Amino acid sequence: MANENTEIVNGIEVDVDKAQRLIKKVIVKEKRNLSTKELGHGAMVDKIKKMIEEEVECY
């Protein structure tokens, strides 16, 4: 059931606000990691997956 902040993309209901918030968080995390080299590629992928899972659980 779509509301004003939800769009259907490829048959999947997407909360636009949550998607935008998540994209911003990922970009900030990636930018910070590029300058600090704190996390390797695999660790960064795991971190992004965890961020997505946390956002989905809140839904």
Task: Give a short synopsis of this structure.
The chain has about 60 residues and is an alpha+beta fold.
What helical percentage do the residues reach? 55-70%
What are the low-pLDDT stretches, counting only 5+ consecutive residues below 50?
A: none
Largest sheet: 2 strands, antiparallel
Shape: elongated
Q: Hey, roughly how much beta strand do the residues contain? A: 5-15%
| Strand elements, count | 2
* Topology pattern, helix = H, strand = E: EEHH
- Over all CA atoms, what is the radius of gyration? 14 Å
Mean of pLDDT: 88
**Helix-and-strand structural type:** alpha+beta
Measure the end-to-end span.
14 Å
Strand order of the largest sheet: 1-2
Number of contiguous helices: 2
Task: Describe the protein.
The chain has helices at residues 16-36, 41-57, and strands at residues 6-9, 12-15. The model has no long low-confidence stretch (mean pLDDT 88). By secondary structure, the chain is α+β, with helices and mostly antiparallel strands. A two-stranded antiparallel ribbon has the order 1-2. The protein starts with 5 loop residues before the first strand and ends with a helix. Helix 1 runs antiparallel to helix 2.
